[in-house]
Amino acid sequence: MVRVDERGKSxxxxxxxxxxxxYRRGNEEIDVLQGLNLDVDKGDFVAFMGPSGSGKxxxxxxxGGLDVPTRGSVTxxxxxxxxxxxxxxxxxxxxxVGFIFQMYNLIPVLTAFQNVELPLLxxxxxxxxxxxxxxxxxxxxxxxxxxxxxxxQLSGGQEQRVAVARAIIADPTFLLCDEPTGDxxxxxxxxxxxxxxxxxxxxGKTVLMxxxxxxxxxxxxITLHLEKGVxxxxxxxxxxxxAGGSS
Amino acid sequence: xxxxxLFGAAITLAALVALLLVVVVVGGILxxxxxxxxGSVPISxxxxxxxxxxxxxxxxxxxxxxxxxxxxxxxxxARGFRATLVASGSADNALVMxxxxxxxxxxxxxxxxxxxAQDKPGVARDAAGQPLVTQEVVGIIPIPLISTGTDANxxxxxxxxxxxAIRKFVKIVEGRMFTPGLxxxxxxxxxxxxxxxxxxxxxxxxxxxxxxVVGVFDAGGSSFDSEIWCDARILNEVLKRPANIFxxxxxxxxxxxxxxxxxxxxxxxxxxxxxxxxxxxxxxxQSATMTRLIExxxxxxxxxxxxxxxxxxxxxxxxxxxxxxxxxxxMRALGFSSWNVILSFLFEALAISFLGGLxxxxxxxxxxxxTTSTLNFQTxxxxxxxxxxxxxxxxxxxxFALVMGVLGGLLPALRAARRPVAVSLREL
Lengths: 247, 428
Prior knowledge:
Order of helices and strands of chain A: EEEHEEHEHHHEHEHEE
Oligomer: heterodimer
CATH superfamily of the domain at 42-66 and 92-234 in chain A: P-loop containing nucleotide triphosphate hydrolases
Strand order of the largest sheet of chain A: 6-7-8-3-9-10
Helix content of chain B: 40-55%
C-alpha cells in the first residue's frame, strides 16, 4: 500500500518522513523537495511523474542512498539510511537496492555476463554459484543467448534487459528505475516494461520508477506526481493500491 | 663481441622471465590474500579499459619505459665500472704502498722495505721458496684511440716477471709474456682493441724506447685489461725514476685469512713506513668516486625524467577518470566502495607502469656486456668497462616504475572515488 502523507502506518518497507532537499547554486538556494512523506509496502510498483526539474531523480537518489537529504529521514526495512556513513551506505546499497538507469549504464568493456555478475563480486558466492545466478537472471530477462556479447553488440532493448538482470541479480529489497524506457523505441519499451511488471507480479519485487511517459506510468500500481517539492497522488489506483492517507 | 652481447642478452632475458614469474606468483598470492579486504572490481575491467584507451596508455607506458631504461642503464654503468675495478683485486693479495698513500700513483717504496715486508708471516712462496711478490711502477702515456684517432691516457704498469703467479686470473691469450730485461710489452685485451698499434708484433714508442708488443693478456674483465705491462726495472729507467724505488708491491698471501697477521706484522715494524691494504679493498675504494658520480648524475637524469613520466601517467589516469565518470558512479551505485575504486584505478596505473618498466628493462638489455671507457679519476688513465645489467638492477628498475605508477595514479584514483555518485550518474 502506498501513502504520501505522514499518517502512514509504521512498518512499511520504505518510510520517508519530512524529506527536504535544497541545492545551492551560487548564492541562490533551490528547494527541490519540501517535507516529502511516502510509505511503500513490499511488492508495490510506484511511478513518479512530474515536469523536468521537479526533483524526481533527486527523490530516487535519496531513496537509493546516492545522495543525502537536507532534512528528514528515509527508512528502508527498518534501517534509517539518512544518518549512515558513506561506507555503511555503500554496503547497504549493495544489499538492498537494484538500479535501472535510462542510459542502461552497462560497463562497455565488460560482457553482458560480466556486467550482470558485478554486484555478485561483492558477495561471498563462489565462481560457480555466481555463474549459476547470472545465467538464471539472464534467462529471466530473455538475453541468455547474448551473455558473451559486449554492450556495443546489443540493441538498446537488450542492453536494458541486461541492466535489469544486473539490478535483480543480488535479490535487492527494492528496485529504483530512472526513466527505464526513456532511450528505447516503443516496442523495446513495452518489452522492458512487461519484464519489470513480471518482476513485481511473479517475483514480488518492489519497484519505484521515474518516468515522463504516461503509457509507461500506467503500468505501475500507482502514479505519484511531484509538484512543488511534494508528492501528489494522480489518477486511479490499480490493483493493490490504496488511497493516500486512508488505511 | 656479438656472441658476448647475445650471451649477455640471453642471460638477462632469462633473469627477466624469472623476475616476471616472481612478480606473477607474489602478485597472485598477495592479490588472493588481500582480495577480501581490498575489494573486487574485476581486473578484466581495468585491462580492457586500458586496451580501449590504448593511445593515451601507450604514451604513459613509453614515458615510464624511457625513464626506467635510463635509470637501469646508468646504474648498470656504475655497477660495471665498480665490478671492473673490484675484479682487479684478489682477497689473498695484499697491496703495499707508502704510508698515507691513497693511490699507487702517489709516493714510492724502496726495494729494501719490500724485502723486509716479504719476509713477514703469511706471505706465500713459490716452489723454490721465493716469496710471491711483484714490485710495480705505473706511468701514463698517450696513445691514439682506434675509434677517433685522438690520444687517450693509457696506464703502463711495470711488474715483476712472476706477476702471473701472483695475479692468477691473468692469462696470456696471444703471443707470450715479456722477457725480463728486454724492451717488450704485453697488453690487456681491451687495450689491444681500443688503442692504435697495440697488436702483437707491432712496436710502440714511448720514453725514447721502441717497445715490441709480444703478447696479449686477458685479465678477466678487470681494469688490468686496459693496461700495458712491462718489466718494472726497465720502466723505472725509461721514466727516469730512481732504481729500486717502486710505487707499490703486491704480495700474494698463503690465504685470505693470513692478511690480518701480515698487516699487523708490517704496520707494527718500526723500520717500515708502509700502508697495507687487501688488494680487493683497494680497488673497491678506487671505484668509489666514479661510481658515486655516475650514480648521482644518473639518478639526477632519471629523477628529472621520472617527473615527466609521472605527469604522463597523471595525465593518462586523469583523462581515464574523466572519461569514465559514469562507469565509476555506476559501480559505486552498485555497492563498490571508494576503496574498491581507488584500488582499481591504482591497479590500472600500476599495470601501465609495470609494462613501462618491463619495456624499459628489455630495451636496455642489449647494453649488457657492451664495453665503453672512461677516465679513472684516481689514476687519470682510461679504463674500459662493460655495462653490467644484473637481476637486482632489473628488479630495481621495475620497482622504480611501480613507484612512478603509484605517484601518477593515486591522485586520479582519489578523485575518482570522491566524485559525488548522483552527479556523475548524470554525465553523458
